[in-house]
Write a structure and sequence with these properties.
Layout (H helix, E strand, L loop, with lengths): L5 H11 L3 H25 L43
């Protein structure tokens, strides 16, 4: 067992216990979903600033109609009006 790789050991365990296949699938799906959500937060969130020279404060350039939340339950962003000053 010392010289075998992780993939070989995993394949042997799946071959012996086929009930592990759904569990491994759901764990992989959860890890993939978490990775995609973190990527979305890093690229689409106004709290993250990747370009400090051209856009040092990205949260000030959001209009009230921009929906940056993942799920808006009761807010219709198309009907909002601007109620804050320009900086």
């Amino acid at each position: 067992m010392a010289g075998t790789s992780l993939g070989t050991r995993l394949y042997r365990q799946i071959k012996r216990h086929p009930a592990l296949i759904p569990m491994i699938g759901f764990i992989g799906l959860g890890m993939g979903s978490a990775a995609l959500y973190l990527l979305r937060l890093a690229l689409r969130s106004p709290d993250v600033c990747w370009d400090r020279k051209n856009n040092p404060e990205p949260w000030n350039r959001l209009s009230p109609n921009d929906q940056y939340k993942f799920l808006a339950v009761s807010t219709d962003y198309k009907k909002l009006k601007k109620d804050r000053p320009d900086f």
